[in-house]
Amino acid sequence: MKRFLDIFCAAAGLILLIPFLSPVAILLRVTGEGKVFYSQERMGFGLKPFFILKFATMLEQSPQIGNGDITLRDDPRVLPVGRFLRKTKINELPQLWNVLIGEMSLVGPRPLTLAQFEKYSDEAAAVITKVKPGITGISALVFRDEERFLLGREHPRKYYSEVLLPRKASLEIWYSKNRTLLLDSVVIFMTALVVLRPSSRIANKWVKKVSGLGDEDL
After folding, report:
1. What are φ and ψ of residue 58, in 5° steps?
2. What is the per-residue pLDDT across 45-68, written as a single tens digit (0 to 9) for each?
3. Phi and psi for 38 in degrees, rounded to 5?
4. Which end of the chain, N or C, is surrounded by fewer C-beta atoms within 10 Å?
């Protein structure tokens, strides 16, 4: 049932969003580095890597410069148009194609780069990769403004690896063990809510309530 809903929603979304996404693609083509899409290898279902698709919001060589796969507030590698696309999460919409071809689901654990995934514990990796990665998910709700958590940190990469990544893993493990269509529906609703109202804390409160994870975990 979930796969059927993924196909239906991804296909409908791509068709309905064409009039909206086309101007975005044109704008990216004529600004920045002239690239429309960005593809990056991520760890997927069953420990099978795949290439995630996004709108290009950063310099093409970003993974090799600065903080690598960690993005900070006011990161100079982010293109002018890219700031808006990232803030509104529009840059994630091309992943509907990944959903359509079966590499991702609408809801699931957010897929990490291979380097980030290697920092997961063996237990976390084994559980999380039994579920298809998602465009949105539990950890995506809680850490939707990841730059805020890294703001002012003396060693942001170390903080990400030692603090944020284990917190994300706890959430993804909980989701992987408790996923249902009802839970996915609420996650989608909460995602739409926080996109429309970025300052809202209702998603965080809901995640804490349903998962049982305390403030020290989130």
Report:
1. -130, 165
2. 999 999 999 999 887 666 656 666
3. -130, 130
4. N
CA 161 to chain centre: 17
Name which of 200, 115, 204, 116 is nearest 165 in CA terms. Answer: 116
Whether 147 contacts 72, CB under 8 Å: yes
Comparing CA positions, the residue from 136, 85, 90 lying closest to residue 109 is: 136
Q: Are 19 and 26 in contact (CB under 8 A)?
A: no
Distance in angstroms (rounded) separating the CA atoms of residues 115 and 5: 31
Position 83 pLDDT exceeds 70: yes
- Backbone phi and psi for residue 78, each to the nearest 5 degrees, phi listed first: -80, 130
Q: Is 26 helix (H, G, I), strand (E, B) or coil?
A: helix
First to last CA, the chain: 31
Name the token pair of 36: 């429309």
pLDDT digits (tens, 9 = 90+) for 88-142: 899 999 999 999 999 999 999 999 999 999 999 999 999 999 999 999 999 999 9
Helix axes 165-178, 202-211, angle to 10 degrees: 60
Neighbours of 3 (CB within 10 A): 11
| Closest residue by Cα to residue 107 from 92, 122, 91 | 92
